[in-house]
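User: Run a structure prediction on this.
Assistant: Running it now.
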Amino acid sequence: MGYALTQMVTPPVPAELDPPLWISTPPYAAVEPVLGVPPLGSIFILDVDLGTGAIRGVSSTVRRAPWAPLLVVTRACPADPEVLRELEGVPGSPAFLVRRPDEGIPLGSLARQAVCSRRPIDPEQLATYIASRLRRPSIAMPMTIAMSAPTRGLARVAFGVRWLAGRLNSLGDLDASEWRDVFHLAAGAGNLRLSSAQAAERMGLDLWTLRRRLERLAGATLDQYREYAGWEWFVESVLRVHCGVLPREGESQAPLPGRQGHLKSGD
């Protein structure tokens, strides 16, 4: 995983977090200690200024919930290389936040902003993430091909190359064009700067089609798609609906945004 410090943002946050690892869940109104397995849409918040001794072992906790992106909070820029080495193996792509004196902005809101300000995900990164989550490293290359293929070339890629179709079929019931849809939907997840209609238009869809596609691929509502931070929760939802991935034992549930339905979670 790459800890690109160019992704840092610098809004104010409170002083030290003790213990160093916290969690913020939708609607990101507060931060709480990590108790059990956090729900889809959560953000891990790690204060690395306490040193490698304080955060040792944190990565194993984060790996228990790969659908929750990690926010690294620090005063120093760049962050201590020893601290970053301690976090090697954490899934996904972290966000970074440089601390300043508290100006009254809730840390949960800042965490959401930082996560959504990460560099956009690309097909290879998402394919590698899925391969790791499914423990199928050999699927990374065909998944990358499916997600990055142009619209006109998808039929030829999916049905003309038997090995690609076979590899994708071994994962579940999604074909190459649907995995391409997963990539584009994941890339746009959590964008509150766009209205629902604007989000649909950016993907070349009408609002009704976007709603149907979210429900079919991830069991998600449009409210969840816009309000839950990051792309990891969306991909996890797809893997649970279509690839047989089950929720972790003891996993909690996030409050539902709006008045719509809920995420399918393998029950």
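Residues 7 and 118 are 6 Å apart (CA to CA).
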